[in-house]
Amino acid sequence: MVTTLSNDTFLRALRREPTEYTPVWLMRQAGRYLPEYQATRAKAGSFMDLAQNPDFATEVTLQPLDRFPLDAAILFSDILTIPDAMGLGLSFEAGEGPRFARPVRTEDDVARLAVPDIDRSLKYVTDAVSQIRRALVGSDGRQRVPLIGFSGSPWTLATYMVEGAGSSDFRLVKSMLYGRPDLLHRILDINARSVAAYLNAQIDAGAQAVMIFDSWGGALADGAFQTFSLAYMKQVIRLLKRERDGVSVPVIAFTKGGGLWLDELAEIGADALGLDWTVHLGRARERIGDRVALQGNLDPSALFAPPDAVRAQVRAALDAYGPHPGHVFNLGHGINQFAPIDSVTALVDEVHTYSRTIRQ
Fold it and tell me: Which GO molecular function terms does the record list (predicted)?
């Protein structure tokens, strides 16, 4: 699936090449803050029906691109598709978030785990990737922007698999971590091999960059993070296909709450690190140097301010990073479902406009 990109700024920034402006995309950019997304979800009937239908997934992936001049598309899916493919029975209850019918808590539960057959159980995801790639091609035969594929990290998937749902204290998975680390290591190894196979399948289907969401890495103590999250992200990256059709496929790693471990994260083999909003962009760049690109990191809550205030926050973040190459603008976590659309419009416009002046 070789196509010429109309806009490759995002990929060049990940390679730390000079760009005319700072590219921008937003975590959860296809989501509940958009009325068109709400309409599509209502048509689909449920979140799972939406995510597992390539037509709907393509539709909602393209919606934010039709509204904002973003520099990348990201596959619409969920980070929990892998444990669902393992047979854990994923569902989404209104107002409660994801839940697994068969959590993994005993030796027998762990013994039953296996790397899923990606081609069979997650074909709806790879079909969506291929379909989105085709839909991104315009009438001139050029692809509008690159497509990002993604997965949850081995540790983040494990938290949901053991807890059975989201958690505020991670009591069950941390009890396993400290009391039966052997069981947790087996889960994490299976998850790492599954995530690598899943991301490689997305790359084969047409993803032009991939991202690992370590959403709960920051819940770990120092020392435990390196053992139970960092090491397994490194394993995933080591198993990834880094090139397709002669073109490099960059990898972004994002640990929410991972500012303490930036230097170690920069050594796991990723091309870029995502930063949450607690990290100062300028100081992070000084620490990391030119080892990796950086992505981030406006506080998502800043979008609740008036558009002029949003623009001021964008300028402050861009000034903090400076005119150096290797920056992709993003939020420090996913966009809030109640974020005003006018604020998102202001954010994207200010990133493009102000970053051009910095580069001049």
Answer: uroporphyrinogen decarboxylase activity
